Amino acid sequence: MPLQPIxxxxxRVAVLPGVLADEPxxxxxxxxxxxGPLQLLLHxxxxxxxxxxTIPLADVADAYVQHLARHPVDAAxxxxxxxxxAQLILxxxxxxxxxxxxxxxxxxxxxxxEEELRRRLVEYRTMRDAALVxxxxxxxxxxxxxxxxxxxxxxxxxxxxxxxxxxxALELLAAVPEPAAPPPEVMLREITIGMQIAALxxxxxxxxxxxxxxxxxxxxxRTEVAVTVLAALELVRRRQVRVAQDALFGPIVxxxxxxxGE
Amino acid sequence: xxxxxxLAAFYEALLFIAERPLATAxxxxxxxxxxLQAEAILSGLAGELEDGRRGLRLQRNDDAWxxxxxxxxxxxxxxxxxxxxxxxxxxxxxxxxxxxxxxPCTRGEVERVRGVDSDYVIRSLLHRRLxxxxxxxxxxxxxxxFGTTFEFLERFGLTSLDDLPPxxxxxAAATALTAVAEDGSPSPVAGAPAPDHD
Lengths: 262, 198
What we know:
The complex is a heterodimer.
Chain A (H helix, E strand, L loop, with lengths): L12 E2 L22 H11 L13 H10 L2 E2 L3 H19 L17 H24 L26 H12 L17 H15 L2 E2 H6 L4 H16 L3 E5 L6 E5 L6
Antiparallel strand pairs in A: 1-2, 3-5, 4-5
Helix pairs in contact in A: 1-4, 2-3, 6-8
Chain B lengths: L2 H15 L4 E2 H8 L3 H17 L4 E6 L2 E6 L1 H7 L12 H13 L4 H8 L4 H9 L3 E6 L7 E5 L1 H6 L14 H14 L15
Antiparallel strand pairs in B: 1-3, 2-3, 4-5
């Protein structure tokens, strides 16, 4: 089965540092780029005419790692390539140490399972082959359905209109009065502590001292009351006013602190 | 002409003028007959068109029907109704194959089979309307389930999903794998691996 090169943009290609990277490039080969590790692994097995079902996968570990080192792969899936490489290397290392029982893996999930990998390869091969068969049919003999024609689109039946209608419409349009000016925009009145500090200072400037309750009585909203009280407290904190209250619930008198600069 | 023949002719005409696939339930309602009977008439009509080697076929997808041209005339028709559309890439075909044969299936399942991230290819398949979201799987995250469309069947010259080419190696491979697993020791391959020829 011919292997189809996968077109990918060059900026997505990564090359692992190669063992043979310094080999002189005598001539350049156009190689297929592998999108995924299973695709590469299967290619390595099939290009040697080995049977996926029986070959010990450790046998292709070297070829797989060498390929990774020498050829570009799709950088977007680099981690998947490396994960499979790690599995293959571990499978191989077990074979190199005959009779040595492998220490139990700390995490059983991390234990590479050769048959699991083989099952994935076979499953992938099935779908790759199905994709090749589908690809041979792609747009070759499509089944066409009836396309709606322009004439099929419903056309509203309208009797011809007299030309005078247009001029009449224009006159009517001219007679339409100008639209009334929009009502003034309603804006939320914003009250800030700074504003109320200024107001308190103005009042104290006029009268020498101010009774807080009197100022609050002139407020138009709960928010304004709250902000005004905060403004008074702020002036106290800044030591710009002195506050006095003779009796509980009595009048709170604010007067400028002597010597406090404005 | 029997009543059934009349209804078959009615359905053929209806599907000829319809500009969209019609559901079995819809067709049954229009003929005021039970659904099962409508289905039998439609299957009969589909068989008739195919056996008679006619220029049209009745295409079925997930309980909806539409009249399309026969695969046999597709190549000749291309001269009249050529589609200036690029062929699908191998990656897109792979993802599409997994969805077509495993449907309904999730993106995760496509990625497990292919061993690579498939978000982009599935998006492109959705964009070309070759697959659609047919539901959500009742597992954490409720992943979208994808299935193939009429556009998919049309593009690949299939009258229904039953016409999908049979999977080549599944059955044989599954049997062989089980045998290997039971044997416990896959026969090692003789000789050193050949040098890398790719």
